Amino acid sequence: MDVLGSLGELSSPVVSAFALFPLVAIFYQFGWKQSLIAAVVVLMTRVVVVRYFPHLNPESIEIFIGMVMLLGIAITHDLRHRDENDIDASGLSVFEERTSRIIKNLPYIAIVGALIAAVCQYEDFRRQ
Length: 128
Fold this sequence. Notes:
Distance between the termini: 7 Å
Largest sheet: none
Number of domains: 2
């Protein structure tokens, strides 16, 4: 019984959907024009990878290019609007709040990680 192979096939549409997250972030933060440009670049990258590099996973390259585009657009936007914006410290409180929530739930996260490790050591998951 090959459970891991089936799980790998199950994750294929999920990985494809993850490639959209950088494009959605660009759309929400920087507008439709920047998002359209990024979408065209990501789509052309997929075409090139599928055609010329069939041994590579095109979804992973899409995610990588999308993240590079998101970072590039964000850095360019910040450099252009550096003088207009004052430093806003309200984001720090959100970061502290989320960090404290993660730290508070750390024992539960550790238990779930231990259970996943124990299940992965089970004989049926290792059999091929």
